[in-house]
Amino acid sequence: MKKRIGTIILSCVALGVLAATSGCAASPQPLETVEAAVADVPAGLDEVQVDEGKDGFSRYVVLVLVASGDELPVESVTETLKAVGGVLPDEYDSVRVAARNSSGDRLDVDAAIAASGFDGAFMINPKMADITADAIRAFADDAE
């Protein structure tokens, strides 16, 4: 009898693990949602690279905007921020934005973000902005 109960418990645990892991595999990862939102790169950008990071207990999305030239187009920044804000999953607390040109030189993002009408960015330095999740979601909602 003891052996039978042990087998039943072990079977239930195995089924639970199987159900949990198969459910995770079927659902898209949160970062994939952001990647899909910026897959159609706006004019003036060659690429939008998406990654994620952690800072203590805070989880954030990293956006690297790769400009076609040596200037960061305001329209491209605005479009990208709105796209990300419209789909940003709840798992993320903020979005960090950086930019570079196709040669790899880092570009200032502060002027382009300010010119886009976005006022909820904390500038870590002229080349990196940190935007709270609430602020970027509100920016996307205001655009609709």
Extended strand count: 6
Largest sheet: 6 strands, mixed
Low-confidence stretches: 22-26
Give the number of helices: 5
The backbone outline, from C-alpha atoms, is globular
What integer value in Å does the Rg equal? 21 Å
Sum up the structure in keywords.
144 residues, alpha+beta, six-stranded mixed sheet, 6 strands
Describe this structure in words.
The chain is of the alpha+beta class and 144 residues long. It contains five helices and six strands. Strands 1, 2, 3, 4, 5 and 6 form a six-stranded mixed β-sheet that branches. Strand 2, helix 3 (74-87) and strand 3 form a beta-alpha-beta unit. Residues 22-26 have low confidence and may be disordered.
Outline the secondary-structure elements.
Elements: H1 2-26, H2 30-37, E1 45-55, E2 58-67, H3 74-87, E3 94-101, E4 106-107, H4 110-115, E5 121-125, E6 128-132, H5 133-143
Parallel strand pairs: 2-3
Antiparallel strand pairs: 1-2, 3-4, 3-6, 5-6
Compact summary:
The chain is of the alpha+beta class. It has helices at residues 2-26, 30-37, 74-87, 110-115, 133-143; strands at 45-55, 58-67, 94-101, 106-107, 121-125, 128-132. It has five helices and six strands; from the N terminus they run H-H-E-E-H-E-E-H-E-E-H.
